[in-house]
Amino acid sequence: MKPEELERLNQSPFMKACRRLPAPHTPVWLLRQAGRYMAEYREVRAKVSFLELCKTPELAAEVTVTAARRLGVDAAIIFSDILVVLEPLGMELEFTKGEGPVLHNPIREAADVQPLREVVAAESLGFVFDAIRLTRRELPGHLPLIGFSGAPFTLAAYAIEGGSSRNFDLTKAFMYRHPGAWGDLMGKLSRAVAEYLNGQIAAGAQAVQLFDSWVGCLSPSDYREYVFPYTSQIIRQLKPGVPVLHFGVGTGMLLEVMREAGGDVIGLDFHVELDEAWRRLDGVAVQGNLDPVCLLAEREFVLRRARRVLDQAGGRPGHIFNLGHGVLPPTTVDNVIALVEYVHEQSARPSRG
Ligand code: CP3
Q1: Of 43, 82, 85, which is best to mutate to test ligand 1, by the most ligand atoms within 8 angstroms of its C-beta?
Q2: Which end of the chain, N or C, is more open, meaning fewer C-beta atoms within 10 Å of its C-beta?
Q3: CA distance linking residue 85 with residue 96, whole number of Å
Q4: What is the DSSP secondary-structure string of 14-76?
Q5: Hey, which of 28, 31, 53, 81 would you mutate to test ligand 1's pocket, going by the most ligand atoms within 8 Å of its Cβ?
Q6: Sorting pLDDT into bands at 50, 70 and 90, what band is 352?
Q7: Is the dihedral of CA 152, 94, 68, 335 positive or negative?
Q8: What is the pLDDT of residues 48-95, one digit of tens each?
Q9: Is 42 a catalytic residue?
């Protein structure tokens, strides 16, 4: 990219907020902003399976760009899934209708870890890098593109459970019973994730988000012992100067230790009050945290709740407006567009100089 193009992206409200610099308005984007609630997405999905969509750079780029343009958001997130990184390790991944992701050969014994391969991202995940390059070309020049990966705990949880889970009992039991194998697994995942994210940055992502979606099932002391060394190592290995967003669900008790593990921006879910959470997170930017279920209510209610989030952020530099978790399939696109417009309007600040 040309230096003037990079500079333009760097001056965008999203990038400024990541660095806690004042921006002309509060930037807004939504977790899962490209998805089944959108007719354009369903049309593409009618022709290909979800994994094929992820692995076809032209289609992944199309879905990414369409959602960002249609919604008028301040950032795009590359269309993919956190679980694609598990395949090159040797896991058999399938997205089944109704049941969500399934890993057909879950890790259940300590001996299941050793055969997992080291991931060479450029070889096995090149389709994501291609999708990022294509998207960067098609995306409006002022819109930053966010790359992402699952964080090692959440990836390990899917690999061990074999799919989604309520309490992650198998994952935690594995961690407690086989600390050595747990370390080997987390080490393999961490090396894969660091290389994968740096590859996304090299391909043209302006920022990266680590999704540790299910780490909220751990206590702070377990987080420190079983997760912190790996997540913090990944973040230290990422290209300096590229903002890192660090997010999980149900992490109200973990915010301080997650912040310590790293990230320029901590993603807040809808279980916490943004003002209180931000007070505890001195020195970083925050992203969040409207409950996605609010978008299923009437327009007036959505905007009232958006107002509450903006009030809690108090116009301080370093707030990125987002949902506290992903957009739900029954959401109407009109409500999302109204939300984005409202955040822009209500947070507009006269430019200083
Ligand atoms: O945000 C975006 O628009 C980018 C795309 C994106 C997807 N998944 C697309 C997707 C991102 C960032 C993800 C991350 C992801 N995937 C997470 C972390 C975020 C979170 O929700 O906490 C997790 C846990 C997954 C795993 C996953 N992928 C599950 C549990 C499911 C099934 C549930 C569901 O919503 O269907 C998926 C499938 C998935 N990932 C879909 C999409 C659009 C739906 C697939 C379809 O089209 O049928």
Answers
A1: 82
A2: C
A3: 18
A4: HHHHHTT---SS--B--TT-SSTTSHHHHHHHTTS-HHHHHH-HHHHHHHHHHHHHHHT-S-E
A5: 81
A6: low
A7: negative
A8: 999 999 999 999 999 999 999 999 999 999 999 999 999 999 999 999
A9: no
